[in-house]
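Exercise 3.2. Students should predict the tertiary structure of the chain below and write it as structure tokens, then compare their answer with the key that follows.

Predict this chain's 3D structure.
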Amino acid sequence: MKLIILITGCIFFINGCSSNHQCEYRPYASPGGYQDSMISENHYGVIYHGNENTSQKDVKELWGRRALELCPKGYSILKDGIKTDKGIIKGRFMRASVYPVFSSIIQCK
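Answer key:
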């Protein structure tokens, strides 16, 4: 019985992380995660890099999560845009992959 519960728990954990973009929220580590830098008082540059499992919509949501951590009272977007970033996957053959990236400059309220 304990083995069945353990196996079921592991399956739910694996499925949750493979389909839920929240599992990918972290500081930047190739491929994926957020980067930020303080430009001046109450102004930040924030970038979120996706990976092969992250959609552009998910990248923008994860970017917003980081922006709210930096500006808990809210923020204004001064400059933004979604772009793609070329990444290399190593294997028997080298191939290029395109991952979504969202970057913006924000001003905290």
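Discussion points: Strands lie at 33-40, 43-49, 75-89, 95-108. The chain has one domain: 25-108.
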